[in-house]
Amino acid sequence: MDLRTFITGVGVVALCFFGIPIRIDDKKLAEHRLKFQSFTQQYNKGYVMDQNEYDMRFELFQNSLKMIEELNSLRSGENSAYYGLTEFSDLSQEEFMHYKLHPLLSKRLRKHPGHYVSATFRNHDHHHNRLKKRAVESDLPQKVDWREKGAVTPVNNQKTCGACWAFSTVQTVESMNFLKTGQLIKLSVQQAIDCARNGNMGCDGGDTCSLLMWLANNK
């Protein structure tokens, strides 16, 4: 075997090792681009005409896909949590915290605790410190999906309104009413945001416990 033949053989082998990963990466990138295109259409993203922002959002979207893949790889069975894309999958963690988590709320809670939880509720007999421990039965089902039983209304989108306290409480009351009456009635979250002002501050934050007290006193 002459030197030229040997070098050619080594080159072919090297191409096999380096070329295949490149093809795989290109295929995955193409799949990600198709998913991102579908994502921008589904959630009506407004940056599709801005190439710089589009590229930045696509990179964040790829990070979300990687995280989803890693989390789903940890599933221990069919009943484990399954992760997927949401309308926030093109946001950075900093953006999500800024627009959705209202970091100043905890400071307001510490400064004005009475605005959120009334003294009446804090002294209520059903306070968590007085709850009795209940025995857990061993024959419980593997899972319970209340959607299949028609006990939950569709998911709401609160957008940038910091009223998770109202959305979560109202939808819980809707489900509790269904379990009691068999009727799934859509209730008004907006009424709770506008009217339950016993320490709550509308889209600037509130407390589920004070809303429950307001509902009990105004039924």
Provide the gyration radius in Å: 26 Å
Question: How much strand?
Answer: under 5%
- CATH class wording of the domain at 24-91: Mainly Alpha
CATH architecture heading of the domain at 24-91: Orthogonal Bundle
Mean pLDDT: 80
Q: How many β strands by DSSP?
A: 0
Percent of residues in helices = 40-55%
InterPro entries: Papain-like_cys_pep_sf, Pept_cys_AS, Peptidase_C1A, Peptidase_C1A_C, Peptidase_C1A_papain-like, Prot_inhib_I29
Domain Cathepsin propeptide inhibitor: 36-96
Family: Belongs to the peptidase C1 family.
Organism: Homalodisca liturata
Give a nutshell description of this structure.
By secondary structure, the protein is mainly α. Among the domains are: 68 residues, Helix Hairpins; 63 residues, Cathepsin B, Chain A, CATH 3.90.70.10. The protein has eight helices and no strands.
Topology (SSEs and partners):
Layout: H1 3-42, H2 51-72, H3 93-100, H4 105-111, H5 119-122, H6 164-181, H7 189-195, H8 208-217
Helix pairs in contact: 6-7
Overview of the structural elements:
- The protein has about 220 residues and is an all-alpha fold.
- Among the domains are: about 25-90, Helix Hairpins (Orthogonal Bundle), CATH 1.10.287; about 155-219, Cathepsin B, Chain A (Alpha-Beta Complex).
- It is about 55% helix and about 0% strand.
- The protein has helices spanning about 5-40, 50-70, 95-100, 105-110, 120, 165-180, 190-195, 210-215.
- The protein is globular and about 90 Å long.
- It starts with a helix and ends with a helix.
- Residues about 115-130 have low confidence and may be disordered.
